[in-house]
Amino acid sequence: MKKSIKYFVLSLLLFLGLTVGQISEASEINRDATVQIELYKLLFAEDELPEELENNGQGNPFEAPNSGLLKKYRGLNGVTYNAYDVTTDFYELLKSGKSTVEAQQVLSKKDMESMTAVQTSVTETVREQDGVAVFQLPTFDSNNRYQAYLFKEVSGSPYYQAPSAQLVVILPVFGKDGKQLEIIKLFPKQLGRKYTPPTLTKEISQHQASYGETINYELVSKVPGDVWTYDTYVIKDQADERLNLHRNSLKVLFNGKELLSESRKIKFDSKGFEIHFDPMLLQKYAGEELTIKYDMNIKEGAEADTAFINTASLKTDKDFIEREQWVKTGGFRFIKQDRKEPLKLLEGATFVIKNQKNNYLKQNNGKWQWETVSDNIAKNYLKYDLFTVTSDKTGVFQLTGLAYGKYELVEVKAPEGYILSETTIPFEIEEGTWKIEEKLVGPLVVVNERIPNKTEVPPTPTPLLPPKKPVLPQTGEAANPSYLVGLIIIFSVISWSVFVKYQSFKERGE
């Protein structure tokens, strides 16, 4: 429920309680006399707008100890006021029987659309005070009468809900000491926009990256319409210790333009930054988006498949908002084995890494780089200072700190006693290729062929020749005696078989 504070209202309308005759009979007339009227546009926070108080033309009725109030308000620049001469209307109302107060009340509601302003002023900073519109106006009209002026707000501000009421000033105005005021101060009040909480969003350019690779972060906070009522407006970002902030990359922007340093103070620490904004200076950006851009990278040695989180927060005296983003790096494990004896683990195999663009990995100050190599890679990898991985005594070697993607292992040095492999080993790094639920993923097997030992080389086998077909002697050729003996034996066996069968047949016939 909106807070409401009621006070005895005397009026914002200034007048001197004299009769019409007294007003018209100014004793001393100086046609060149002027009066300075200053309007102090006051913007009050939501739910803190007080009722009208007596405006004596000198002090601020809403300022303690004048009113006993401790209300939060501020002067508002950029509001345009017109001054109108309503002297004739005022005196005609008096002649018609209206009292001075009644005449002022009628004039304060007068439609001024068809009237021509005698002067225009825009609220600005005067004597280190915001929201002041200054008018220098004649004290008397051409009929030697004290003037009456009406002030109307004609161009407002997006920081409040509706224009303030019209103000009427009847000259002369006297101070508490009975002297006529040469400077009259009025304090039109205004209710600020309804409170809308600030917002905070956090975006990241990528959720996976290599060691040293630049990661872009962006914080966006929509500044509330009543930010001037805040005492605190702090945006902070704290990162995992394995993330490194690029301090020189930090930028604070409004509409693409960097915010001046006097509007904010930046503090850095080992984990990030903290920006303290001046709520009063932020007011001109009310309703707009405040953007903070900065870069980070994953430090060398950070574990693969682990979320590195940084948390941004917005703290005000009314709100606390937190937003998180995470980033990971990838990894892969391998094991080197003998091709024929899988239980034999090989130490000393050295590899370089190639990407899909056929560039080779190298490392510089904790940051990965990719090098183009046209020479024989096995003979020149040291020349190009390429990054290498080597299998240990258990045959294991590993690679961490690369972004997700497809790569190839290229062997540049074989284990002692083994043939250098000319076949590249493709592998793909993605989430879960290093560990799953804190358990390491099994390694990819890479094999080598042993160099054959001379003592192990088998004798050259005698080639098997097809048997020769038997050849009958040709006319004019000498026969082989063994060959003839064989033919005689075969012929004798056949003859005997025929004779035995014939005798059996003859006996059955008888």
UniProtKB/TrEMBL annotation:
Residues 33-189 form the Gram-positive pilin subunit D1 N-terminal domain. Gene3D superfamilies: 2.60.40.740, Immunoglobulins (2.60.40.10). The chain crosses the membrane at residues 483-502. InterPro entries: Fim_isopep_form_D2_dom, GramPos_pilinD1_N, Ig-like_fold, LPXTG_anchor, SpaA_PFL_dom_1. Residues 467-491 form the Gram-positive cocci surface proteins LPxTG domain. Pfam families: Gram_pos_anchor, GramPos_pilinD1, SpaA. Residues 332-434 form the SpaA-like prealbumin fold domain. Keywords: Cell wall, Membrane, Peptidoglycan-anchor, Secreted, Signal, Transmembrane, Transmembrane helix. This is Uncharacterized protein. It comes from Vagococcus salmoninarum.
